[in-house]
User: Fold this.
Amino acid sequence: MAGHGPIELIATTPMGLEAVVAREVRELGYEHVTVENGRVTFTGDALAICRANLWLRSADRVLIKMAQFKATTFDDLFEGVKALPWADWIPEDAEFPVEGRSHKSQLSSVPACQGIVKKAVVEKLKLAYGTEWFRETGGRFVIEVALLNDIATITLDTTGPGLHKRGYRKLVTEAPLKETMAAALVQLSRWQPERPLYDPFCGSGTILIEAAMIGWNLAPGLRRRFNAEAWPLVPEALWEQAREEAYDLVRDDVPLQIAGSDIDPDAIDVALAAAKAAGLANEVSLQVLPVGKARPLGDYGCIITNPPYGERLGEAKEVERALRQLGEVYLHLPTWSSFILSPSKQVEHYMSRPADKRRKLFNGRIECALYQYFAPGGLYGWRKDKEQQESPGSK
Assistant:
């Protein structure tokens, strides 16, 4: 498997975003894609490890699927793990911690499973390297054993810290939206960089920055490092190739109309610092403003927003007032679409109409709905309008 033939990879995803991540994987050119709860499995080569880590906007991490087998006893688990070609991947000096989880399985003790897997890998590597002791001072290879319905999936984590850690956010506001979720909201809106985008509850600016990165086709992983950069089977030359490809694909000449506001001046300071760190300070307009005074400019734009939640940011009355004001602002934007991520059951009431589409998503552990409101004519209205403006006979 290692080095030569195809490698089976898993992009782990938050619940509800599997289809978004599957689309991203296909857009990278990888075809054999399987979608399950919380994971998208696909086949690639060592270069695919680099590309997936650099480019996937809404996945949590990229894992190598080493094996999947039935394990109802510790013996099953030990033998299944020991049979794998660990020395193909893990060099003699590597650090190889084992993480684990178990759900609806007879092997329910996670620490015991971790211990068995570690022992099995050590035994296999002892045979391969002819040594009794591993210093574990080199590259990091995190092995995970995940048990579900007595099926063990054994993986190697190529990513390290989750993919949401893009590197631009040094400070955080009280309840930040993860970068991966913010990117997913932009992708689900089908926003195009020619259209205005506005977030009236922008907080630390994550939705706006992720939108600007999408608008300019900036690979989200360009500013960070990954565990697999220290792996012999994923040589430095491949990382350099993937990064050069990504730099060549940047479209930083595309004009963007991305703006946001928040009532909290500290949040706007954090957002400005993040936009600057991302190299996008000139592309994102930010101001301190209550939602009721927000006046997005342009036609056929998108509001994409994550309003404050009662349980985390102030009281329910304030949340209701904010949603009511958002509904009033939206009344003045007849050509705009709106995408609101909220756990509140009152969103449709305050928007004065049912959502055109609702999608269940989890913001961390909080169950939310993405309320989707499409403008009359929506994207098609925008395209039609644009075509009329660009046709030779138009004034």
Summary: The radius of gyration is 24 Å. DSSP finds twelve helices and 14 strands in the chain. The domain at 7-157 is CATH 3.30.2130.30 (VC0802-like). The mean pLDDT is 92.
